[in-house]
Amino acid sequence: MGWQYLFPAAELCRDPYARLPVRHHLHEKTIQRAVQAAVRKAGIAQPASCHTLRHCFATHLLEDGYDIRTVQELLGHADLKTTMIYTHVMAKGANGVHSPLDREGGLSGSQAMPRADASVQKW
After folding, report:
1. Which residues have a Cβ under 8 Å from the Cβ of 4 and sit 6 or more positions away?
2. Where are the alpha helices (H) located in the chain, listed in sequence order?
3. Which of the four, 20, 53, 84, 122, has the lowest number of CB atoms within 10 Å?
4. Rounded to 10 degrees, what is the CA torsion of 41, 59, 117, 113?
5. 26-49 tens-digit pLDDT
6. Which one-letter DSSP state was computed for residue 106?
């Protein structure tokens, strides 16, 4: 079974000189319009864009404990100072620290350590 079976459209898109299958990319404006349409359809009142998604991606990686150098590489930043911009969002103080025992598989019920936000129900 060849790659033509997995990617039948590749037969339609070939480099005219090398005759190798090529991949066509979407124009960035097409992606921006799709994100804006999704934001409107979702009824989100806050301004949001492709850059918002990029910022959220970087922030979540850092919050999940990924190394800042890894995030720098994923975002394509040449200078670490540019990546450090994303760390200002994470300044939560002591309330942002959670014990690994509070995660799934850790202690449960009365054995679990109380957290500062334990009174807030999360759905």
Report:
1. 10, 11
2. 3-6, 28-42, 50-63, 68-75, 80-84
3. 122
4. 130
5. 889 999 999 999 999 999 999 999
6. S
